[in-house]
Design brief:
Structural class: alpha/beta
Strand order of the largest sheet: 2-1-5-8
Number of strands: 8
Strand content: 5-15%
Largest sheet: 4 strands, parallel
Number of helices: 12
Helix content: 40-55%
Order of helices and strands: EHEHEEHEEEHEHHHHHHHH
Number of domains: 2
């Protein structure tokens, strides 16, 4: 699969190695700079620098009600950049509808997507119960956008799931730009069938009837993509992958000899038992697909959901 370099991912500038943190440092994320940069373009933003805070600068933190906190200086409480950050976020996030994902800086009072420390007015900690002001507005303005934090991307399952969602969402954006039709929606759904089965079978069963509806195609598309992105949000489980692999195996029942059928069954069973990684049954199925050219499977994104050289399925 060749991923177009025009697939764009928003990212906190410090994660690309830009020295924009409060102390003049950065939090370079090698997965972004060394791996993702080969296939995706980045749109980098440092909200704190964007609202005029210099480098270096006083530290800031979330203070008050965790649902509607203020952004206050950590030591100099006369610093209050809440209104500036809120205005910047509200003005900026709607213009990011051309990106297909976002990587935020964890624990940041501006960019943290979850578990950001919040403090009471008297300085006592209320716990890691907040969301960065910019991050919150981003996720509100673009609710379909795949969003992750740098720390969470150290988890191989979350890393794989994030890139999978980014690429799937970019396909949706490209289709909508061309102009949505019933035929295009049907093709999109068909080609993602096994990815949906591997991630969320109940939602997959709901999506089929939506695609089959007649009526306002834009309304149908809106309801479809809401559920589609929700289905992909959770990493696929071993159980669901196993069910999907077995479903795909059925397409080869008229092609494989008894020995190949038995070997494939054993490989899938060993994967289900945790004795083999996902790549083993997938590679075997891919070889059979290449040999027998089963038409329905040839363009399924389950086999190539993102660039192969990112090696994201290693360890799954």
């Amino acid at each position: 699969m060749n991923t177009s370099p025009t697939i764009r991912i928003g990212i906190s500038a410090c994660l690309l190695g830009d020295p924009v943190r409060f102390d003049g440092g950065h939090k370079n994320l090698p997965f972004a700079t060394d791996e993702l940069s080969r296939h995706f373009d980045f749109v980098k933003i440092c909200p704190e620098q964007a609202i005029g805070m210099g480098v270096p600068r006083p530290t800031i933190r979330l203070v008050g009600d965790p649902d509607t906190p203020r952004l206050i200086g950590s030591t100099d409480t006369s610093i209050d950049v809440t209104d500036k950050m809120t205005a910047f976020a509200r003005n900026t996030t709607p213009s990011l509808d051309h990106i297909s994902g976002y990587i935020l800086c964890a624990k940041s009072p501006s960019c943290g997507m979850e578990r950001v420390p919040v403090y009471a007015e008297n300085g006592n900690g209320l716990g890691k119960v907040g969301v960065g002001l910019f991050a919150k507005q981003l996720m509100t303005a673009l609710p379909l956008l795949p969003v992750e934090e740098n720390g969470r991307l150290n988890d191989v399952h979350l890393r794989e799931n994030f890139v999978l969602r980014v690429v799937a969402y970019s396909r949706w954006q490209a289709m909508m730009k061309e102009g949505i039709t019933a035929k295009r929606l049907q093709d999109y759904h068909r080609r993602h069938k096994f990815l949906l089965l591997a991630h969320n079978q109940p939602i997959y069963r709901e999506l089929g009837p939506i695609v089959a509806e007649s009526g306002d195609i834009n309304d149908i598309a809106d309801r479809y993509i809401d559920q589609f992105m929700l289905a992909l949000r959770q990493p696929a489980s071993i159980k669901n992958h196993t069910n999907t692999l077995m479903h795909i195996q059925g397409f080869f029942k008229d092609h494989l000899d008894p020995e190949d059928k038995q070997q494939l069954t054993e490989v899938i069973r060993d994967y289900a038992a945790g004795l083999l990684p996902l790549l083993v049954p997938l590679e075997m199925l891919s070889l059979f697909l290449k040999k027998y050219q089963v038409e329905y499977l040839l363009d399924q994104y389950y086999f190539t959901p993102y660039p192969r050289d990112l090696k994201l399925r290693i360890g799954l």
